[in-house]
Every structure is written in structure tokens, then in C-alpha cells.
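Ligand-bound model needed. 2-hydroxyethylsulfonic acid.
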Amino acid sequence: MNKRIAMVTGASSGIGRACAEKFAQGGYNLIITGRDTEKLHLLKEQLEAQGATVQTLVFDIRHREAATTAFNSLPAEWKTVDVLINNAGLALGLEPEFEGNAEDWDAMIDTNIKGLLTMTRLVVPGMVERNHGHVINIGSVAGDAAYAGGNVYCATKAAVKALTDGLRIDVAHTAVRVTNIKPGLVQTNFSNVRFHGDETRADNVYKGIKPLTGTDIADVVFYAASAPEHVQIAEVLVLATHQASGSVVWREKE
Ligand code: 8X3
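Prediction:
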């Protein structure tokens, strides 16, 4: 296999899907992971029509054993991942911290923090051994400062920043690069998930502003991966033009 391999977690929708498409167009083969077999298979067909060879791994990233079994099931030539895009993540709820739902907290912590760590632990030893590779974590503007009701989600994305910075220190003696891409408002199914399917509430998040798309973020991810080997894009904050921070958004009146 001559092409480089990009592995994208949470690839069946949103930023993950856009990254898979961008890297396929950019000449990579893909390992796409997620929970939805059907969606991953449809995406595999689409990416293969674009000329990529694709492996799908279906597992719930919250389950370390399932993730380990899935990764170990890859043929040896697929385990040599060049770019790991730790994208799988979600927000649930916007309740005040003192009224939050413990199950929502667990889902966010287990996916956004522990899932990212699991994949890093599986893939990065090979990168260090080969003295080659790039880990791109999808953080968030939410990790820079808390916003109202963001509490646990913001904490998980602050953790993504700390884990990205920590990994960058731990591999500084190698050629492995580590990047944190921090999107702001991106219109995907992010808010539908956050509000448990309440579409009106989800739509209101993007009202009066032109939000980013998954493709806007995938472009930045691909740029970081394409930089010359001696250039390490450590961190990028990507906001919609009328968004100034996690809590300041200028919205056009109707
Ligand atoms: C997603 C961006 O501002 O909705 O991480 O938290 S925000």
C-alpha cells in the first residue's frame, strides 16, 4: 500500500465525515470508525468511488475493549496509521452544572476524553516506533473558556487541550506531530445531539449567523497534515466570522 493512511474516529457524520472526504480527495486511504454500520458502509462506498481504499471499524469508542479488538483486527499494513484524527465527541445538554444529568456527563467524559485517550494509546506507539505520524485532535473553543451551561462539555474540551499539549511534550523527541483544532459554531448534527433531538432548539443555535461547516474544519485539518514535516501546527482556533468567543456571537436580527 503506497498511499498514506488517515484514521478518523466518529466519521459517519459532521466534521469527521468531512475529514474523511477531504483526506480521500487528498490521496489518502482511510480507516473510518463509528457506531453506525450502515452509515459507515455508505461512506466507504462513496470514498472508494473517489479512489481511496477504505477500512471500516464499527465500535463504541466508550468501550476500551471494543476499540482495542477493532484496532487489533486491522491487517498489519493498515495499523501503520499516518494521521490519526481524534474527532469522535459530543455535547449533551446545557443545564447548569448543579442540575446536570449524570448520564450525559458520563457519555461526554467517556467519549471526548477517554475515547480520545484509548485511540491515542492504540495508535501512537506505532508512530513513535516508526518516528513518523500526526495526531490531530478536534478540540473546541469551548475548551478555552466555559460558557453558560457548557460546564462538563467545556471541561472535556479543556481536557482535550491538556491531553494534546501533554502528548506533544511526550513525543517531542520524535518526528510525530500533535495538533489541536478548536472549532467554534459548526452546523452539523452537534446541536441536535446536544438537545436530544429538539430541532427548534438546535436551529436556534445557528440563527442569524452564518456558521462554519464540517468542510471548513476539514480544510484546516488537512492543511495541518499537509504542512512540511518540520512544521507543527500546534493549535488552531477556527470561528465563524461573527463569533468572537464561546459566548460572544453577533446575530443578524430577522
Ligand atoms: C462546539 C462549539 O461553541 O458550540 O464545540 O461549544 S460550541
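The helical segments are 14-25, 37-49, 64-72, 102-130, 151-170, 190-194, 199-205, 214-226.
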